[in-house]
């Protein structure tokens, strides 16, 4: 599901999230969200894939390029940033329990671990002798 998140500026210029991107990933994904941060308040979740920053597609951009764009954005005097993210699982409603939410996070971590463990095998299969 697509989700538009609005994150307001923090005094120190941080958003309260970490992004990760491998060279083969077309878009970065959220690898961490600090508790009670502006990113968390804006609706950003662990595992979200960042598609747009302030309405601009970020396909193929490096994390350092995104950081530079954010720095320029804050220097312009902006008070917030918008992020269009893709979320694999819809946000939980208040009627759903915390156990289900923790299961979703554990499942994502397991999937990431499996992909990481399989990567050397995939790379060795792609290596030319």
Topology:
Elements: E1 2-8, E2 17-20, E3 29-33, H1 38-41, E4 49-53, E5 56-57, H2 63-75, E6 80-86, H3 98-126
Antiparallel strand pairs: 1-6, 2-3, 4-5, 4-6
What is the H/E string?
A: EEEHEEHEH
Name of the top-level CATH class of the largest domain: Mainly Beta
Query: What do we call the CATH homologous superfamily of the largest domain?
Result: PDZ domain
Cα(first) to Cα(last) distance is 42 Å
Overall shape: it is globular
Strand ordering within the main sheet: 1-6-4-5
| Class based on secondary structure composition and strand pairing | alpha+beta
Helical fraction equals 25-40%
Strand content: 15-25%
What is the number of independent domains?
2
Total DSSP helices: 3
Radius of gyration: 16 Å
- Average of per-residue pLDDT values: 79
Largest sheet: 4 strands, antiparallel
Total beta strands: 6
Give me the CATH architecture of the largest domain, please.
Answer: Roll
CATH topology of the largest domain, by name, is Pdz3 Domain
pLDDT < 50 runs, ≥5 residues: 99-108, 113-129
Provide a concise account of the structure shown.
36% of the residues lie in helices and 23% in strands.
Describe the structure.
Residues 4-70 form the PDZ domain. InterPro entries: PDZ, PDZ_6, PDZ_sf. Pfam families: PDZ_6. The chain has two domains: 2-91, Pdz3 Domain (Roll); 96-129. The chain is 36% helix and 23% strand. The model is unreliable at 99-108 and 113-129 (pLDDT under 50). The chain is of the alpha+beta class and 129 residues long. A four-stranded antiparallel sheet has the order 1-6-4-5. It has helices at residues 38-41, 63-75, 98-126; strands at residues 2-8, 17-20, 29-33, 49-53, 56-57, 80-86. The chain is globular. A hairpin with a 2-residue loop joins strand 4 (49-53) and strand 5.
